[in-house]
């Protein structure tokens, strides 16, 4: 089934999937846990507890907005997209670029005067705002960096954390 | 000779401004000088005060290690300003308010018509076509006029290296990134995309579009679009700008007011010059003598 395949591909592109369990009734299959491993060199990958979020939120579109077979909910988007069919993209990465400010992207945006969605958020911003924004609104869930992300040694050095007595990376060179 | 150059520079500056004003009364100061200008839109409603941008700037610009780590949230107790050791700082406001706290990143705003540049009589400052206001330490004489002239209180004075360079401030990562089209280090690291990099003209459209589609979230004002003739760094806020550390008294007129103030200052500058030079001379002698000096707090007095 193609939509199922899409889901796996999309989930895989988001991160490695640890466990597959059919959970929410309306979805074909969803991962219980998603490993987010796009944290660069400063933070270690971490396991996002997908199952827990499904239980608490019930509605997939709360995070995946118009992507998981739900029509657009946001009234602003609905003005144009009321009759748009839901997209098959599940992962944030499917729409939000990991390099939103690359010279190519900026030149393209600058040249296209007709473009309406000039302000589409990059991947990192989209994910953090989705998570932190909701945690702030609900007054529950982590909002600090290290509550989710464990730092690598490089990350500690980058922040010159005195706890490890680490120097900034560039200071070591001299 | 230097004095003549200096007066000439003021005159040229004055003429440019006068022309700009007569031609474009409706958009004072936003002369079409830098069509390729890039910029950064700071959305203070997105900033979470993580200070990652400070850490990234520190590394990118090879600045000295900070006094405490970038995790240290106690720095938020007092508002800070950029210094020679920290080209950017994040400050906290409205901590007692229900919607608060609000965070705001501070750095050089890369003015379209920079007061630092106009006030510098040895032409140590350059406004590049990409919008960055950069600084050449080789010609700087350390007079600190730019520190006085900057309406945003930005340039910092490096007391440690008395010889070169003396003035330090955000350069929009010009050498390492902007020149080759890459976003600044602080923008790159920001987890919340509180910082949006792009063509200044596009950023202004994006900013107004954010306000239009979310009127409850934002005040209907893009700070830096017109202030002091426009700046490359632009700000959106949900809180009155004066409550998050912006100077509400700055007009849209570019440096003209600053030039006026500055011209009034000229005799003073010229008369304190010799004093400054001998001071610097003494300091450099002190330095070469191998003794470190630790007079920062005293020197800081205006
Ligand atoms: S903010 Fe200050 S230092 Fe930066 S360009 Fe403007 S006048 Fe110069
Ligand atoms: S643009 Fe570059 S120099 Fe300026 S604050 Fe950001 S990282 Fe620092
Ligand atoms: S990195 Fe972004 S969110 Fe963090 S303090 Fe800087 S501007 Fe704010």
TrEMBL record, chain A:
Residues of the signal peptide: 1-24
InterPro entries the record matches: Multihaem_cyt_sf
CDD domains linked: Cytochrom_C3
Keywords noted in UniProt: Signal
Keyword Membrane: no
Cited SUPFAM superfamilies: Multiheme cytochromes
Protein name as annotated: Menaquinol oxidoreductase complex Cbc7, cytochrome c subunit, putative
Automatic annotation (TrEMBL), chain B:
SUPFAM superfamilies: 4Fe-4S ferredoxins (SSF54862)
Recorded superkingdom: Bacteria
An annotated Gene Ontology molecular function: 4 iron, 4 sulfur cluster binding
Residues annotated to bind [4Fe-4S] cluster 1: 47, 50, 53, 190
InterPro entries: 4Fe4S_Fe-S-bd, 4Fe4S_Fe_S_CS, FDH_Electron_Transfer_Unit, Formate_DH_Fe-S_su
This protein's UniProt keywords: 4Fe-4S, Iron, Iron-sulfur, Metal-binding, Repeat
An individual GO BP term: formate oxidation
Domain annotation 4Fe-4S ferredoxin-type: ranges: 38-67, 131-160
Subcellular location: Cell envelope
Cofactor note: Binds 4 [4Fe-4S] clusters per subunit.
Cofactor dependence: [4Fe-4S] cluster
UniProt-listed PROSITE patterns: 4FE4S_FER_1, 4FE4S_FER_2
Binding site for [4Fe-4S] cluster 2: 57, 170, 173, 186
Chain positions recorded as [4Fe-4S] cluster 4 binding sites: 120, 140, 143, 146
Cellular-component GO terms for this entry: cell envelope
UniProt keyword annotation of Iron present: yes
Residues annotated to bind [4Fe-4S] cluster 3: 108, 111, 116, 150
One Pfam short name: Fer4_11
Protein name stated in the entry: Menaquinol oxidoreductase complex Cbc7, iron-sulfur cluster-binding subunit, putative
UniProt source species: Citrifermentans bemidjiense (strain ATCC BAA-1014 / DSM 16622 / JCM 12645 / Bem)
Gene: cbcH
């Amino acid at each position: 089934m193609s939509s199922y395949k899409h889901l796996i591909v999309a989930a895989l592109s988001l991160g490695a999937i640890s466990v597959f369990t059919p959970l929410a009734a309306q979805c074909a299959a969803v991962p219980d846990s998603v490993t987010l491993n796009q944290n660069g060199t400063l933070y270690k990958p971490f396991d996002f507890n997908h199952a827990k979020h499904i239980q608490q939120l019930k509605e997939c579109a709360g995070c995946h907005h118009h992507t998981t077979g739900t029509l657009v909910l946001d009234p602003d988007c609905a003005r144009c997209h009321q009759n748009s069919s839901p997209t098959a993209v599940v992962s944030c990465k499917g729409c939000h670029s990991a390099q939103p400010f690359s010279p190519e992207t900026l030149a393209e945006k600058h040249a296209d005067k007709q473009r309406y969605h000039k302000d589409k958020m990059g991947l990192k911003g989209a994910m953090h705002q989705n998570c932190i924004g909701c945690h702030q609104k609900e007054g529950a869930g982590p909002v600090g960096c290290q509550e989710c992300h464990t730092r690598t040694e490089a990350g500690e050095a980058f922040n010159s954390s005195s706890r490890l007595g680490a120097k900034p990376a560039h200071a070591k060179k001299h | 000779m230097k004095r003549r150059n200096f007066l000439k520079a003021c005159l040229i500056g004055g003429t440019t401004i006068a022309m700009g004003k007569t031609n474009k009364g409706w958009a004072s100061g936003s002369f079409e000088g830098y069509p390729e200008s890039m910029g950064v839109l700071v959305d203070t409603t997105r900033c979470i005060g993580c200070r990652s941008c400070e850490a990234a700037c520190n590394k990118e610009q090879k600045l000295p290690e900070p006094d405490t780590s970038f995790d240290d949230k106690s720095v938020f107790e007092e508002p800070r300003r950029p210094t020679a050791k920290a080209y950017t700082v994040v400050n906290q406001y409205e901590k007692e308010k229900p919607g608060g706290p609000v965070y705001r990143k501070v750095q050089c705003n890369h003015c379209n018509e920079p007061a630092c540049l106009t006030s510098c009589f040895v032409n140590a400052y350059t406004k590049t076509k990409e919008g960055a206001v950069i600084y050449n330490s080789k010609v700087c004489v350390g007079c600190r006029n730019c520190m006085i002239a900057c309406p945003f209180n930005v340039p910092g004075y490096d007391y440690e290296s008395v010889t070169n360079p003396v003035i330090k401030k955000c350069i929009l990562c010009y050498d390492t990134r902007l020149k080759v089209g890459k976003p600044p280090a602080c923008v790159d690291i920001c987890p919340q995309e509180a910082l949006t990099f792009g063509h200044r003209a596009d950023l202004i459209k994006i900013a107004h579009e954010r306000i239009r589609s979310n009127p409850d979230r934002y005040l209907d004002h893009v700070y830096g679009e017109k202030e002091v003739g426009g700046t490359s760094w632009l700000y959106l806020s949900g809180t009155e700008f004066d409550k998050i550390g912006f100077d509400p008294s700055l007009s849209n007129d570019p440096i003209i007011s600053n030039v006026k103030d500055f011209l009034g200052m000229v005799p003073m500058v010229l008369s304190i010059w010799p004093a400054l030079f001998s001071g610097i001379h003494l300091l450099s002698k002190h330095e070469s003598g191998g003794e470190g000096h630790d007079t920062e707090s005293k020197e800081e007095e205006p």
